[in-house]
Write a structure and sequence with these properties.
The structure holds two protein chains of two kinds. By secondary structure, chain A is an all-beta fold. Chain A is built from no helices and eleven strands. In chain A, about 0% of the residues lie in helices and about 60% in strands. In chain A, strands 2, 4, 5, 6, 9, 10 and 11 form a seven-stranded mixed sheet that branches. A four-stranded antiparallel sheet of chain A has the order 1-3-8-7, with no helix packed on it. Chain B is mostly beta strands. In chain B, a hairpin with a 6-residue loop joins strand 5 and strand 6.
Chain lengths: ~110, ~120
């Protein structure tokens, strides 16, 4: 069966420090991968999505970036965190074809101090 | 661009009663998928129900059903016999049909549902 792993679960980082969040998917190939951010009590904001290795689409201009070095690995990064980067980050994947359900990781709670 | 709008930030319902959550969307596509996801306090996203736009029949999953009005671009969720475990944030989501490139999954801002015992 397919599973999605996202880590770390929580992270406290100082302003100006770098960030790396990782997400991996098991049990499927060539998934579509997504990074979402959820501010406290708010909706899901799509940050990046990827349909294949090295293919990244950015939805929101900001100091975050994403990379997909392997088929089932999706990384969210920042060189210098801002206070406004605090939030709950969710990784998700969808398949290609009629099975259209999105599967989500457990999320990472990032606090920038 | 596709947008999803949930105009009810918060809703409450008495236990065992029925509640309807609203969702509207904007798209120029004719074939697509719509979803309702539930996010309980654990923050794990759980699929509640899905609807294919080409299907006229409204989807139903036990106590959950949708009212899909394609012309009006409306997709509401009805929860019958509300239970305490239904308390959560509910998100409406849109995705193009896979034949047209299915990579983007867009969510609404969510509706927080409270169940009153």
């Amino acid at each position: 069966s397919q599973t999605i792993h996202q880590w770390p679960a929580t992270l406290v980082q100082p302003v100006g420090s770098p960030l790396s969040l990782e997400c991996t998917v098991e049990g499927t190939s060539n998934p579509n991968l997504y990074w979402y951010r959820q501010a406290a009590g708010r909706g899901l904001q799509l940050l990046f999505y990827s349909v294949g290795i090295g293919q990244i689409s950015s939805e929101v201009p900001q100091n975050l970036s994403a990379s997909r070095p392997q088929d089932r690995q999706f990384i969210l990064s920042s060189k210098k965190l801002l206070l406004s980067d605090s939030g709950f980050y969710l990784c998700a994947w969808t398949g290609n074809g009629p099975n259209t359900e999105a599967f989500f990781g457990q999320g990472t709670r990032l606090t920038v101090v | 661009a596709q947008t999803v709008t949930q105009s009810q930030p918060e809703m409450s319902v008495q236990e065992a009663e029925t509640v309807t959550l609203s969702c509207t969307y904007d798209t120029s596509e004719s074939d697509y998928y719509l979803f309702w996801y539930k996010q309980p306090p654990s923050r794990q996203m759980i699929l509640v129900i899905r609807q294919e736009a080409y299907k006229q029949q409204n989807a139903t999953e036990n106590r959950f059903s949708v009212n899909f009005q394609k012309a009006a671009k409306s997709f509401s969720l009805k929860i019958s016999d509300s239970q305490l475990g239904d308390a959560a944030m509910y998100f409406c989501a849109y995705r193009r049909h896979f034949n047209f490139g299915n990579e983007k999954l867009t969510f609404g801002t969510g509706t927080r549902l409270t169940i009153i015992p």
